[in-house]
Protein 1
Amino acid sequence: MATSGNINPDDLASLRERIDGIDRTIQELIAERAQFAGQVGRAKGKLAAAVDYYRPEREAQVLRRVVDRNDGPLGDEVLVRLFREIMSACLAQQEPLKIGFLGPEGTHSQQAVYKHFGHSIHGLPLGTIDEVFGEVQSGAADFGVVPVENSTQGTIQSTLDMFLSSQVKICGEVELRVHQHLLSRSGRIEDIERVYSHPQSFAQCKAWLRQYLPDAEKIPLASNAEAARRARSADDAAAIAGISAANVYGLKAVAGPIEDRPDNTTRFLVLGRELFPPSGNDRTSLLIFIKDQPGALHHVLAPFARHGLSMNRIESRPGHTGRWQYAFFVDIGGHVEEDAVRAALDELAAFAQEVKVLGSYPVAIT
Amino acid sequence: MATSGNINPDDLASLRERIDGIDRTIQELIAERAQFAGQVGRAKGKLAAAVDYYRPEREAQVLRRVVDRNDGPLGDEVLVRLFREIMSACLAQQEPLKIGFLGPEGTHSQQAVYKHFGHSIHGLPLGTIDEVFGEVQSGAADFGVVPVENSTQGTIQSTLDMFLSSQVKICGEVELRVHQHLLSRSGRIEDIERVYSHPQSFAQCKAWLRQYLPDAEKIPLASNAEAARRARSADDAAAIAGISAANVYGLKAVAGPIEDRPDNTTRFLVLGRELFPPSGNDRTSLLIFIKDQPGALHHVLAPFARHGLSMNRIESRPGHTGRWQYAFFVDIGGHVEEDAVRAALDELAAFAQEVKVLGSYPVAIT
């Protein structure tokens, strides 16, 4: 039978009683919260569908406060998850949000959906990124979630290009950590003489490899999947790959996560049909069409600097609508309803052929 | 811009203030709960790994109380999920539970893992049911989750058969609802003249079909995947299948969930290495080896009836250890530490060649 360490049974009983008391109060408060949330969603005596009163800027504010006042023992990430689930449950009392994502179920996109919206939603797995845009545009989905950037593989161009023609708005971003594992057939570190992986994965796990496998040969390959495939056919080889490759290729996890820094992330965008008000810490994504003329890029960037706006990302793409035209995707700090952003956009209008505001949305929380 | 129905902005601000106050208190209580849980897990001044103080019977009791005192507005299932997550977070403060399951990620088995253990765990996707048993047995996984029964397809024999040779114990069960959707190429119900599906899926969605597609031809096929495959190549056909088939076969969801009763479930077993004490509402799984002689089955069943124990399931399997031997998997109400069960087992010992207690565990909660 299981034991609870060295704790005295009386102490254990009294600890559990206190926990039970806490649970009772938490439950009362959650019910009260759901009632108040219901009042927010009630118009003309009838509770509205979640999409009609979902407010991303408000959720971001709530979660930031959760992080600000957290002083343990639980981590910020765990607490944010718990509060997302509580908000998700309160919001879904009538008709839950319908969220389109790049399926099938079990993908990182689905994880990003749950991370951002909680589990009290209705997920719609779709076959392509195009379809996610389409279902959001048509209203079949209330929101969509698409990957846009991977810290190891860079920008997902097909997502950015959708914005050239689509009218959907960005109303959120989600960052998801992706972990690396060391996988091998035997699962024993002492058998490993060679390690296969993508060069970027080697770079991510450098310190770990130096500490635990200093003498193993490192063999770079085109992908981590290829690495796992090769590790399968040798007793003395291992691969660095995501844990799911262990199952697909019949390998065992030797160790993991083994990346040196916990910042190996994929960034997703939340798509909707409208812009939401500022949350206080926002990002604005712009699509700027300019003529290819000397100094054009400088003219485009200068207004942001002049108004003290940080630029998080710039990506140029060939435009589709004119011969000499180029398009830039630019992410800046701030919200289009804020003065500095508005002023910069006014100045930008003098140089750009067109500026499309793709969205202003809360910066991702944990 | 989004609006919040007809609500007066002052009322909205005051509602939000009250919600903020509630959130602050919930957060304080969760932190306090985590501290107390930490004290339960602390022996000799050091916080133990989750596996050393995880108590399934205690969790079941906590969750039953949550259900008992719930009087809305949130549903039992949502509240149970929230409290599972809170307990999961409190438990994972040092080293989270490692849970093996039948991968890859995104399967129903993974959903069952999260439903039972919350998200603050370390999931190990494995390639086969054998491996889940093996990793639990060896200690590489703290617990495992395997499917054992589907309300439409019946018992998963390969799981049951593992118990014939394995020493792992059942220490929990999870029930997961599986939903049916109507899928077609166009996604428009007015285009549908034929519906493909497995006969059991037709049976599950009978009332819905009668109401919405009374004139469509119903064509039974061997599987829902085959149904989806066929629906892909016709404009006037639809399939009844799980929503994930929509993505795999490039179909759109016309409607769903469309099953008439919400009891289309898959049952999973939680595997561990030890038995836990009673939770107050438990089930016991037995593997009974008997000689094939007249009246043998009656002798096996009689003690349970005599001691007022309900029998939830009986399944006969050819035994592997003797020529005339048969094995029965039997689930009864109660826990092996309870008098009635103990007495029935004592009586059973007179007739059975061997009785193996596979586990005594809390009945699944919502």
Protein 2
Amino acid sequence: MHIALDAMGGDHGPQELITGALLAAEQADVDICLVGDETILAKHVEVLAAGREAGRRLTIVHAPTTIGMDENPVDAIRKKRDSSIMVAFGLAKSGQAAAVVSAGNSGATLAAAVRTLGRLKNVARPGLASIFPTLKGPVVIMDVGANVECRPIHLYQFAVMASAFSRLYNVDKPRVGLLTIGEESGKGNSLVKETYALLHKSALNFIGNVEGRDVFLGDVDVIVCDGFVGNICLKISEGLAESAMKMLRDEILKSTMAKIGYLLARPAFKNFQKRVDYAEYGGAPLLGIKGIGIICHGKSSAYAIKNALIEAVEMERLNINEFISRELADGVTVPAEVV
Amino acid sequence: MHIALDAMGGDHGPQELITGALLAAEQADVDICLVGDETILAKHVEVLAAGREAGRRLTIVHAPTTIGMDENPVDAIRKKRDSSIMVAFGLAKSGQAAAVVSAGNSGATLAAAVRTLGRLKNVARPGLASIFPTLKGPVVIMDVGANVECRPIHLYQFAVMASAFSRLYNVDKPRVGLLTIGEESGKGNSLVKETYALLHKSALNFIGNVEGRDVFLGDVDVIVCDGFVGNICLKISEGLAESAMKMLRDEILKSTMAKIGYLLARPAFKNFQKRVDYAEYGGAPLLGIKGIGIICHGKSSAYAIKNALIEAVEMERLNINEFISRELADGVTVPAEVV
């Protein structure tokens, strides 16, 4: 299986991305097309792949331009058809790659994916899913930013797609929750109330409303919400985790005793960080497109990139898209008035 | 100054609430009317206030019924006019109390406050503000659940009211941010885009859009959003903080070395917890009503109740409501089409 990696995107530059590609090729049966400036990439590959068997599984596909992190996504993908992101999706379109992984401009990656590959049949809106760590297992939240304004049918389809994706975590009958501000069925805004009715009569394993405080408990496998709310949830969680670690570090650095204590407890801290680290879960898959596209955090480490590449391999192996298409073809009949 | 405390609400029972009242009376010049079953309250006061000077600042006002945590708020306040929450707001209405503090059913407290005291002139919708700890100082977020569906004028007024409230933290020209999913002015849903225009031309110190990840950085004093988004932010932050602490504790308990390390670093952990503990910030004020109403977490400790009572004293002392009325009378002219 070939996967295209936008080797120019991300905050840490091509070295980190290429290192991730090598790690993935060492762990799984996968070939990786590094897309980007061939002179730059060849130089890095020469150094990083020296003496590593996995080096033979990397190829370079030239793309002369790149899309910056701050460029307007829609403008950029229209003007820079020869950018690494666009060339990567071109490889997916032509069948030369089964999936695309990018840590570059996420809006541009999203737009390029939908524009180049198109939507799966019957999918009204592709959406971005994100995997959150919880006290028990991971929970898939969708949408986390692709669709700012949604209708009930979109949330229903997010539930179907995210349920299909949760097969990656060996979840048999994924429990689906609807994110809102109270547990009773009447709680929430009008979007939530209408979506509740739709999910309630669907074939999904819908367990009802969930509140913000339930997200990290692990008693639900899939949580649906519109992309505005989902993106704020994602960002606020990241922000809180980072700020809390900073505050804790500040306090520890104030006393020598606390510093010694921290050193003794460090393995526990490391295990904790591993449990909550988004890098463990790869990237955010864009579900509902004809193909596989995974959007990684700009600051992804090589380890996170490796996991995103493995995630793409797994999505292909488990036929997630076929599963989505089948569910949306045979699934619940959606009344015309809510579409 | 007299403050009415719903002495029957909350998960920990009257003891915790009365202890909080005693602590407040020991710290500030305040008299507290404990509202609830007089037989029960008198028994607790006898024990808890024994030998404490502050005991003389407590009085008991009888209320024969209570509203349970799971009762429907609107039904409950209509049917139970003699409940501790309703009697407490009755004291505020008649001028016998300057403020009400409750850790009981929050929906009922909210409804009772609006129903009994009414709105301040020119306030379209009262809203609930919450104080979040950040890397720098506290940030006030409004609305966190009183208004599920909002219009731009409501968010603008939340900004005015929360700015007035932030005087409690000695903030001179509070920096106001609009919670959305991107920093540029065009980012967000239609509510956010229209609110942006309104805030931009207002007299407020509007610094533009803020994202979820900015909430805990402390570079903004006031953040506005609709009550659906705000409530989810509040609950997800609480849930993440609790779950993360549980995970960290699990990891520490796995090794003796880590346990020793934790013991050495415990003062640092305690300081950290103090910095992020909502109990430090009292309760959530309902702003925009003719009076002062503070809603506390059901699981509030005596310490949190004490801080909520002190918060009420400060709100009265600083004339927050007068400030809000003046701002909304002289403030920016809101174009008719957005009201």
